[in-house]
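Following up on my earlier thread - several people asked me to post the actual chain instead of describing it. Fair enough. Here it is, all 375 residues.
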Amino acid sequence: MSGGWTLVDANTNKSLPMQGTQLSGVAVPYTAPSPASTDPVGKLRVSTPQSLIDTDFEYGQQPTKWESVALQNNRSSAYYIPQSPLTVTAITGAGTTTVTLTGTFVIAANSLIYVQNALDSNANGWWYTAAGGTNSLTFITTNIVAAGNQYNASLSYVYQGYLYSNVGIQLGANAFTTNATTTMTVTTTNPHGLGASSLIYITNSSSTGTSVNGAHVVVTTPTANSFTFTNSNGAVAAAAVTNSAGINVLYARPAGYVESRTFDGGVAFSAGSSVPNAQLIRQTRRYFRYQSGKGIQFSTGTSLNPPLFVTGITASGTTATITTRFPHNVAVNCTILVAGVEQSSYNGSFIVATVPTPTTLTYTIPNSKIGRAHV
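Reply from S.P.:
Thanks for posting it. Predicted structure:
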């Protein structure tokens, strides 16, 4: 039976003679390919070893073989080059939304910055640097970043971002209005497709005072052609912001992320937002080069319901608070399943009551508790 199918003992996984199970106690042995017919992970070879090209997608992120596209309502905007991280030594918070980036780099003014796996998750995401800088720059985040260096030499990466061509949301001339506060109203030429909490970029606008260029979050959408946002740079005087018609100023801002999991060779990726119609698509490159007559073997697996990385659960009365390592992207009234907590009152299916921060959420438990749960 060499070179083809043979009998295999179910207990020992060893090849057997045709007539028996060698006292294994298994009445009927099953069949499996012989070792010469399988690859190192047990799959049946589809060609001879000399002709097989091992694409080896299983170990690490391998950005040369994968590409990712973040979309908001089917609209793309920004991307970064995974092979070109910035050389960074510090991501320094000040207990405010202003963060200082230090390292060895030259970044032009009005550039996009993408931060991944900072110690404080509020520093992670897509941001905007108005001034740029050589070896040092600042950017403004949506949420407060803890004071101190949030850079982890083993996990943190920072990239310069770039905008795709022709993906801006079209505006007419002077589309920004304000009432001398931080609230800005924007009128678009066509339906914008945004919703409350959608992430946006404003670039290339002009202002006689406080700029509105930067990374912002949509607050309301009064009509299909208008929305409001809170200017993270501060209050803006009335009629102080101008823009030219036909010049891309407004972009959807991606929220998704891709993270290589070295402990198991997998890759975690997420749309990164609780906003409807936010997507992150991860796909193989469109083309593979191989010689005629040779084979390509590809296999993969996906968990469509991964658990959140929970760092702790506490309770006060009947209100339980879950803290996660990364932003959970869970909205109020979502259903969550809690399992594995030693105190059974915390376990079960619950409705999210509140979302105090991007990394915490609360739900109501049936029995009153005080203190920290054991997870």
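The domain at 78-163 is CATH 2.40.30.20 (Elongation Factor Tu (Ef-tu); domain 3). That should answer part of your original question.
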